[in-house]
From TrEMBL:
Transmembrane spans: 32-51, 63-85, 106-133, 221-241, 250-267, 299-320, 332-356, 432-450, 470-487, 508-532, 544-566
Compartments reported by the entry: Membrane
Protein name according to UniProt: Transporter
UniProt keyword Transmembrane helix present: yes
């Protein structure tokens, strides 16, 4: 922890003034805009549904140990690297690889991950928007069990249970028999035999999604969901129309609201009977599970997923910072904010699950569900028990919509920025057109996910593209910056920005620890691969669907080796010369503004005449000393 705390005592340079304004690309209006936008990006649905479920599945409170270890040794160092990299050059995730041209494919991989995630992530946001609208009634639609979407088996009407629970053991049977005059035997019998489920489950699967039997039967488009999806993409388009100036201000409300609602829901849940049972289940450690490799793999995957490492979004957000912004301080604030939301969400979710378990008369472990089920089945069922349930439902799903949109703001901005920065003089004027094409394309690609079989497609995309490709990109990024560009050079760049000497801790993490741990987790995940199963009935996906999933993974990671092969094939020289040339920064690598070139280690050769005092000695990097016939850069010998 010494490495973390030592750098916090240094404030950023006073040179961060209006003279640092980037007139072409634009920049954040304030540092708070940047921090809140980062929080809006990384604090998303995974904090609310994925983290609590992983805590439950991997030993309760014991899961915090591997999670914090992975956060400290992998998550925070990679976030710091990505943010500092983007701020130094003020470039998007593709163009920024002028630093190490050999690895430009990493940038393409990041953009593809952002695009794939944006397609299915916004569908989940559309589901939440639909729930938001249907909650605007006096009685929630999943509060009763006499609806057209209810089945004859495994159904529990919470209002019936509440009424009959007022009677003692000898009177409960007459109560149920009396209710049979209102509901059929097939509805009441499961209640009496304790074979019961929440109406919210049938509402989600049979009413909202009207889910089909499998991938082979997509069925028809659910027009209600398609309209909600269109609305979400329209909001994203309008919010990004003027760039970060608008989205940065929107983040003030979008980011703060989820924290407020989670705290309110936690306090409200704590006052209800059964909440302590859920929280006890959440924090009680099962130490024996720590010896299972899966626990550590889940911890690493969740850290990367939660912090959105190597999706390209962090690089994009930091690229709009002013050169002297204290990026180290912001890294710590953002990572702490994300971890705080995960922990708070866990307490709030398990408090509500405890309430629902008490209501159903069952244990907490029989109530908890993973991912989608936690947000759209368990929590809505628990909200029914709250006084003024529609109000709480509106607040909860408004929070989910805001969290989804705030993540998508950056995902879409990442794609647009990556395209524009490739030729900013020409494409900057066509930014709105590019934004329109991206949003329209993502909407059209998302339409199949609004069909009756869309849930299967969504789980397939999330299961394959959401975890493995970003970690592959993280390994390549660690190799590119830590070993090729050089940790020593990278630390100099950071020192020039924020006026500190980067501590040994970060040098150690970047040079070996973080990439090696990430590679180990990747290998373990590949060896211990478990075939994908359907969310609600645990039926395995067909083999052809898994092949499609692996092709999706390949789509996101193939750009790295493909780019290396293409570049090696298109330049002249021996193989060793080609590698050395592609491991050198390009001629225009460095800070965006000319005034900051005085801090840079690499100067563009075309401007060498402006710096007669500079040493024009050969370039020296990890690949050795290399002379080329065409000037690439001039290296300054560090003082």
């Amino acid at each position: 922890m010494v490495g973390y705390l030592s750098d916090l005592t240094i404030s950023s340079s006073d040179e961060d003034s209006s003279e640092d304004d980037n007139k072409v690309r634009g920049h954040w209006n304030s540092r708070l805009d940047f921090v809140l936008s980062c929080l809006g990006y990384i604090v998303g649905l995974g904090n609310v549904w994925r983290f609590p479920y992983l805590v439950y599945r991997n030993g309760g409170g014991a899961f915090f140990i591997p999670y914090l270890i992975m956060l400290i040794f992998c998550g925070i160092p990679m976030v710091y690297m990505e943010l500092a990299f983007g701020q130094y050059a003020s470039l998007g995730p593709i163009t920024i690889w002028r630093a190490v041209p050999l690895f430009k494919g990493v940038g393409y991989g990041m953009v593809l991950v952002s695009m794939v995630v944006a397609v299915y992530y916004n569908v989940v946001t559309a589901w939440a928007a639909y729930y938001l609208f249907t909650s605007m009634t006096s009685v929630l639609p999943w509060e009763s069990c006499n609806n057209s979407w209810n089945t004859e088996n495994n159904i529990l009407c919470t209002s019936i249970l509440r009424n009959c629970s007022l009677y003692n053991d000898t009177e409960v049977i007459p109560c149920i028999k009396e209710l049979q005059t209102i509901f059929s035997d097939s509805v009441i019998n499961p209640l009496y035999t304790h074979n019961k489920t929440s109406p919210s489950e049938e509402y989600f699967y049979r009413s909202v999604l009207n889910v089909s039997t499998g991938l082979q039967e997509l069925g028809e488009i659910r027009w209600q969901l398609a309209l909600c999806l269109l609305m979400c993409w329209t909001i994203i388009f309008l919010s990004l129309l003027k760039g970060i100036q608008i989205s940065g201000k929107i983040s003030y409300a979008v980011v703060s609201f989820p924290y407020i609602i989670i705290i309110i829901l936690l306090i409200r849940g704590m006052t209800m009977d059964g909440s302590l049972d859920g929280i006890k289940f959440y924090v009680t450690p099962k130490w024996e599970l720590l010896q299972h490799p899966r626990v550590w793999g889940d911890a690493a995957t969740q850290v990367f997923f939660s912090l959105s490492v190597c999706w390209g979004g962090l690089t994009t957000l930091a690229s709009y910072n002013k050169f002297h912004n204290n990026i180290y301080r912001d890294t710590i604030l953002v990572c702490l904010g994300d971890t705080l939301m995960s922990v708070l969400a866990g307490f709030a979710v398990f408090a509500s699950i405890g309430v629902l378990g008490k209501e159903l008369g069952t244990s907490v472990d029989n109530v908890i569900q993973s991912d989608v089920g936690l947000t759209f089945i368990v929590y809505p069922a628990a909200i029914v028990s709250f006084p003024v349930a529609p109000l709480w439902s509106i607040l909860f799903f408004l929070m989910i919509v805001m969290m989804g949109l705030s993540t998508l703001f950056t995902s879409v901005e990442t794609i647009v920025t990556a395209i524009v920065d490739e030729n900013i003089k020409i494409l900057h004027k066509k930014r709105v057109v590019i934004l329109s094409i991206v949003c329209l394309s993502a909407f059209l690609l998302g339409l199949p996910l609004t069909t009756q079989g869309g849930l299967y497609i969504l789980q397939l995309m999330d299961g394959f593209a959401g975890g493995f490709p970003p970690m592959v990109n993280a390994v390549f990024m660690g190799v590119a910056i830590g070993w090729t560009y050089g940790v020593k050079q990278f630390c100099r760049d950071i020192s020039h920005m924020i006026g500190i000497t980067v501590s040994w801790w970060w040098r150690t993490m970047w040079y070996g620890v973080s990439p090696i741990i990430t590679l180990f987790i990747l290998i373990f995940s590949a060896v211990g691969y478990i075939p994908l199963h359907r969310e609600f009935d645990d039926i395995r996906y067909p083999q052809w669907a898994e092949i499609v999933g692996f092709l999706l993974v390949a789509l996101c990671i193939v750009p790295v080796p493909a780019w290396i092969i293409i570049r090696l094939a298109t330049i002249k020289g021996s193989l060793i010369q080609k590698f050395k040339m592609l491991c050198q920064p390009e001629r225009d690598w460095g800070p965006a503004l000319e005034k900051h070139w005085k801090y840079a280690e690499y100067y563009p050769a075309v401007n060498a005449q402006n710096f007669p005092e500079l040493d024009s000695s050969p370039i020296t990097t990890i690949t050795g000393t290399f002379l080329v016939s065409i000037p690439v850069t001039i290296r300054i010998i560090s003082k």
